[in-house]
Write a structure and sequence with these properties.
single chain; 225 residues; mainly alpha; Fumarate Reductase Cytochrome B subunit; two-stranded antiparallel sheet; 2 strands; 3% strand; binds protoporphyrin IX containing FE
Length: 225
């Protein structure tokens, strides 16, 4: 059982990671709703998808250049480590992690990969009426058809994973009294010893990540619809 030994708080999630997360939540909800509404919101569906692609690109770069707990090297673990962690978690003696635990880290990678696939397939999809993804014309009919089918399947998978993601966070809150949601809002967690607090984020790294993402998004918006 995790117990809060002291009231001292340490920085875990840097501001870019927090902004990334809550923007992602907003865009995801809008994309699911607008995708399901057919023609009505399809133009905005495209725009939100473009923005999401910039967001995901940002997070990938941030996974290399971001602060301690946002880096892939700090939370991508071997599957065996993840299984050991999961066993401990259900037995009520999960080891504490300040950043993503091994199972959470795996979930993050799965979400990022599937979101990237959802975006890529959206770019080559068509509604068979008026709206073609900007790269629909650049691929063969067969690729566009597979893309369209995947676009439908992967969004369902994503919704399931998001349910699991939120369920895991609720589980941690009640089983381990771990305040994960507030930490994703204000960035801090209680110091329980052995903490690696995040340093201030590098302005240069932030500008590099923002620059690449902005150029990509502007390029997409410049394409004819
Ligand atoms: C209201 C719904 C949601 C809540 C309360 C929530 C909460 C959280 C929390 C607390 C974390 C940090 C977990 C940890 O400490 O290891 C997290 C991480 C994450 N969540 Fe969510 N989440 C929600 C919805 C979503 C959705 C819809 C998506 C994507 C489709 C998503 C994708 C992610 C990703 C990718 C991370 C990793 C953040 C990073 O390292 O950049 N979440 N979420
Ligand atoms: C660059 C981004 C994207 C583009 C250009 C795009 C394009 C499209 C198009 C053309 C359709 C209509 C397909 C049809 O009528 O059969 C569609 C449907 C849909 N999209 Fe997207 N999309 C993008 C990203 C996303 C993302 C990121 C999500 C979810 C996270 C999403 C979720 C959906 C859903 C739920 C539907 C309705 C189900 C379906 O027909 O596939 N889309 N999208």
């Amino acid at each position: 059982m995790i117990q809060v030994a002291t009231r001292r708080m340490i920085n875990v999630w840097d501001l870019p990671t927090r902004i990334f997360h809550w923007t992602l939540v907003g865009l995801f909800v809008f994309l699911i709703i607008s995708g399901d509404m057919g023609e009505e919101l399809i133009e905005w569906h495209f725009y939100a998808g473009y923005l999401l692609s910039g967001l995901i690109l940002f997070r990938i770069i941030w996974g290399v250049m971001g602060s301690e707990h946002s880096r892939f090297t700090s939370f991508v673990r071997h599957p065996k480590t993840t299984i050991t962690y999961l066993k401990g978690m259900f037995n009520g003696n999960a080891e504490h992690h300040y950043g993503h635990n091994p199972a959470g880290g795996m979930m993050v990678i799965a979400l990022l990969v599937l979101l990237a696939l959802q975006i890529a397939t959206g770019l080559v999809s068509t509604d068979d009426v008026i709206w073609d993804g900007p790269f629909y014309g650049a691929v063969s009919d067969q690729v566009a058809e597979i893309g369209g089918e995947l676009h439908e399947t992967v969004q369902g998978l994503l919704q399931l994973l998001v349910l699991l993601h939120v369920a895991a966070i609720i589980f941690h809150r009640f089983k381990y009294n771990d305040p994960l949601v507030p930490a994703m809002i204000h960035g801090k967690k209680p110091d329980m010893g052995g903490a690696v607090s995040t340093r201030n984020v590098s302005v240069v790294h932030t500008l590099i990540a923002l620059g690449f993402s902005a150029v990509w998004v502007l390029y997409l918006f410049s394409l004819p619809l």
